Amino acid sequence: MSPVVRTWLGFAAFGAALIHLAVGVTAPLPLSVLLFGFGVAELGWGIATLAAGRVLVPRVIVGAALTPVFIWGVTAVVGSGLGVTSGQSGLPLYPMAVASLFNVFLAATVAIALRRSWTGPRTPATSSPAIVRAAPPSGWCFITGLVVGGFLLSALTTPALAATEVGSHAVPHGSHGVTEPAIPDSGHGAH
Hints:
Mean pLDDT: 82
Distance between the termini: 76 Å
């Protein structure tokens, strides 16, 4: 797996973690505990994967990344069957959809990489697949991939965080106690 794709996996884990932590603050207690657990696990895995320079526990990640998506789906289906809206369930639609997008990307990318490693050439001495490391990208390719991944992360995560209950209570930028400017009366009112 190329370093650029591995970096994107770390970014996807960070985005999902931030959203799960933000939604978990106002979710009902059982969902809050689950979301905090997912958020901490995603954040830890993203940091560890970027630090290690390889995808850690890939088989576990494929299933673990889809677990929050499954729980959100079950909560949405059961809640809608009971007449509970997504806002009432504590799991807002847009943030959870973006977090699910990150998780599905993570699971699908790791699953494809696992599949390719098992269908690749086999070494004569063993029956296990030969893991061929991708050639490192050139400096410009890596920087371009890093910048594109960063832009995608921020473009998806920022509005999703703003759509959470926590984001709705955030102070708007540039209004930290600033009121409308007072225009002094110069005394030249009506001539």
